[in-house]
Write a structure and sequence with these properties.
The protein is of the alpha/beta class. It contains eleven helices and seven strands. The longest helix is centred in the last third of the chain and has 17 residues.
Amino acid sequence: MRVLRSPVDAIGSALLPACCTLCGSPLPRLSSIPICNACWTEIPPQTGIVCLRCGDSLDAPVVEGIEASYVCRACRVSPPPFAKAVSFAAYDGRLREAIHALKYGRLHPAAKKLGTMLAEAMARLMPDAPQEMLVVPVPLHRTKHRQRGFNQARALALGAIERLRHTHPDWKLRLAPSTLMRLRATETQAGLTPTQRRKNVRGAFKVSHPAVVRGQHVLLVDDILTTGATARAAAQSLIKAGAASVYVATLARARRFNSNVSPAHAARDAQSAFADMHSSSSSHQPAS
Ligand SMILES: [Zn+2]
Ligand SMILES: [Zn+2]
């Protein structure tokens, strides 16, 4: 006869698979999160050189000592309305599978653990980020919300805030989950070019209660950032509603391009960035 350790285990074993959702290997013990430890360790944090504004990884060699050479071409050509975007890891491998499982398999318990990873990304904003921030999850359109049953960005934000309450108790983060609305059920962004993505989300967001946002520093949270088109559109509407600043944190970062930048091209880019930085005082104006 099998003896169950606790009623919670009994419920867990009834609801959750005994195998890892990602790799299929048997789980050593009942867990509220059906993902094995080996799979979690296969999600390494982002390393390497990243753009100071949008967090995209930079292939280009950086010109030592020139800060502007750490800003990617897209951010230089059209500076984003947000101050800075950070991500925990590349949207790849196990993280990609875990996010997929969370979104489409309703793997809700995983949101807490994935939220701790998002918290790590958020903490990277700490040196510059304001002490008090309003955390706004990127909303789903109500049709999609109804289909999915929950907003993964909100679930991740909750997990992250809970974690940061322990690791950074002085950082005042307040969740404002229904401040931003998605007005249009935009087409899925997958397979669209950066320009198509921008068009697709233009005017897609609206702030429901501008008084909540006015004068506040906002930390916009989402699961994945690709071209940044969604983050730009959402940040734009928050700033229009009076937000003092907008920062962005996502769990994963997808590569914007399959970039193949020649070293000569990259060096030229870095030099023109340096020239831009020293000739323009309005480089932080959002481009429309
Ligand atoms: Zn596994
Ligand atoms: Zn950038």
